Amino acid sequence: MQKSIDKVGDAEVVKEVRFNEESEIVDFRMDSLVWRQELDFFFQADINKASLASSYESIEESGLLIHRLKPAEKGTIKEIKVSKQSGKIASITILSVIDNLFYNSTVEGLIKMNDNEEISSYRLSGNQKVWFLSNTKLSVEGKVK
Fold first, then answer.
1. pLDDT at 106
2. Nearest to 109 by CA among 59, 44, 57
3. Using one digit for the tens of pLDDT, what is the confidence trace for 57-73?
4. N or C: where does the chain have the smaller number of CB atoms within 10 Å of the terminal CB?
5. d(CA 25, CA 15)
6. Beta partners for 34?
7. Alpha-carbon distance 58 to 65, whole Å?
């Protein structure tokens, strides 16, 4: 992912942020540090750690590589899908779920790449529910101009 950030470099991005029913659109420039912060969810979803080596099953089918948390295993990253076209990464989708008696959070992240494997857009969307509070919906979508 860092290679994709380095390729896109200093890019102009249109970002829409939605919080429940409110929405805001921002147009700004992102350097590699801002990209890193903006895509932190994807960096934190790294399942290539020694402690997680046997926690995921991998399935490959017609241009799609799926890493799925095994049923008996514990972890917040439930699934990572890497889609390829002509041998190049076209998109990465990550599903994260935290669910316990007091708190529920579901976040899905999607990064789309162009033919040069540069980031063309990204999206994070999710719901949070804390016991005794109303549901919160959040969505962030960015597109490289």
1. 98
2. 44
3. 999 988 999 999 999 99
4. C
5. 6
6. none
7. 7
34-68 burial: b if 16+ Cβ within 10 Å, else e? ebeebbebbeebebeeeeeeebbeeeeeeeeebbb
| 66 touches 81 (CB < 8 A) | yes
* Structural tokens at position 50: 């020694």
- Kindly state the helix (H) or strand (E) to which residue 6 belongs, with its residue range: helix 2-8
| Tokens 């896109």, residue located | 8
Classify burial at 96, counting beta carbons within 10 Å of its beta carbon; exposed 0-12, middle 13-18, buried 19 or more. buried
Rounded Cα–Cα distance for residues 29 and 10 (Å): 7
Confidence at 50, pLDDT banded by 50, 70, 90: confident
Reported pTM: 0.90
Contact 142, 38 (CB under 8 A): yes
